[in-house]
Each structure stands twice: as C-alpha cells, then as structure tokens.
Design goal:
The chain is mostly helical. The protein contains 11 helices and 3 strands.
Length: about 250
C-alpha cells in the first residue's frame, strides 16, 4: 500500500508541475489537462484511450492548423484592407509556414513537454511546429475560440508579424525561381540525383540550369533541402534581374 501511495503521490506532483508550467506558458488557467497532455504525446508511445483510439498530438495538430489559419486570415483581412486575395493568401502562408512555426515552437521551448520513445534530438525539426499547432488545438477544445485567438495574438501576431518585413521574406526559393522563369518565359531544369559518396547518410545533389546554362548546385540530406539550397544560390546569383522583374 505504501508503494502505491508513493506512486500516486509522485504522479500527482508531476501533474501539478505540468499544470503550473502550462499556465505560465498560456497566461490563463487550463481546465482539461488531458487535452494538453495529448498535445505533447508523440505517436512512438503508441498510447490508446479506453475506446482504442490513438492518443497523440496528430489530430490536435490538424485542428490547430485550421484554427491558426483562420485567425491569421481574419487578422490580415482587417489589418490590410487593400490587400488582394492573392496578397492575403501569400502573407498568411508566410506566417504559418513550417519554418516559421518551427521557430515559434523552439522559442517557446515546447519540446520540454514532449513525451516520446524516441530521443528528442532524433524526432526531426518539424516536431516544434507540429506540437505548436497541437497546442492551439488543445486550447480550442479546452477554452474555445476567444482563448485560442488571444494566445495566437500574444505568441504569434504581436511579437512576430511585421507586414513590411513579411512582404520581403522568401519562404521558398525554389517556388520563387520557378515563378520567375515562367514569368520571363525561361526554361529551367532541376537535375537531382542521389549522391551518398563515402558517407553513411544518404545525400542528394542537384544542379539547376536556366535556358540550358548551369547556374548553381546544392547538396543536402533530402531532395527538398538540396533543391532549396541550390535555388537560393540561383537567387543570389541573379538577384538584381529577379527582383527587378517583380
């Protein structure tokens, strides 16, 4: 019995510590802690509820993504009354980009809450943005739209959203290069191939040519990263010409 009491007492202290850390992060008192525990549970734990449904952050991430997108869209609609649909869509995409959400998750140190069977450094960079969105989903289910909106304004819009800076921010160099080539009626080619060399980790190399002329190369651990790296080099090689055409 003493052993069971110790376990219960220890669990109670952990719950209490989690509650107060969470309250400090949210700037309000959470009501249903289970939503937040789920928001920080990685699927590697393979937890299920009494009905056999998986208990992890992924469904909350889906909900949080939708809530974040709608609140940011509403903010931009009011903030930029002359913005066209295309402009507003572009600005929203920059604010809710995976890169930006990962930065937000890191700044808030959300990784400290994550429960996983995988070492945190091996989970992958996108875990930061994923759990940030899951947290928003948990807030919505726990306290509703207004609390969700308040959290997003405090943690995203006020400290990070600067319309003028966002206008000049490039979220995808590959997308920019392709758009520029199409606009200028230029041909482009991404010659991408696996290039492991003597290394144990798989790498990809890419060579970008425009109108048949090789412009830049890139190499990274994924095809997407290699192409983005090479595209960035193309942009800086042709920056004046590209910027003047938009």
């Amino acid at each position: 019995m003493n052993f069971i009491r110790k376990i219960v007492k220890s669990q109670s202290k952990k719950n209490e510590a989690f509650y107060y850390e969470l309250k400090s992060l949210l700037n309000f008192s959470p009501k249903k802690i289970d939503y937040y525990k789920k928001a920080f549970t990685h699927r590697s734990l393979k937890e299920v509820d009494e009905k056999g449904n998986p208990v992890n952050y992924e469904r909350l991430e889906f909900l949080g993504d939708a809530m974040l997108g709608s609140i940011i869209a509403s903010y931009l609609y009011k903030k930029v009354p002359k913005g066209t649909e295309g402009y507003l869509t572009q600005m929203r995409s920059k604010i809710v980009s995976r890169e930006h959400l990962n930065e937000l998750g890191k700044d808030l140190n959300l990784i400290k809450f994550v429960k996983s069977n995988i070492a945190k450094e091996n989970i992958g960079e996108n875990i930061y943005g994923n759990i940030f969105e899951a947290l928003i989903g948990a807030i919505y289910l726990d306290r509703g739209y207004n609390y969700c909106k308040k959290f997003i304004y405090e943690k995203v819009i006020v400290p990070y959203v600067d319309i003028e800076k966002l206008e000049g921010k490039v979220t995808s160099y590959k997308g920019l290069i392709i758009e520029w080539c199409q606009k200028q009626k230029k041909t482009y080619d991404y010659d991408t191939y696996e290039d492991s060399g003597n290394e144990n980790v798989k790498h990809f190399s890419v060579k970008i040519s425009i109108d048949g002329v090789p412009i830049a190369k890139g190499r990274a651990t994924s095809k997407k990263k290699a192409e983005e790296q090479a595209s960035k080099r193309v942009y800086f090689a042709l920056q004046k010409e590209i910027d003047n055409s938009f």
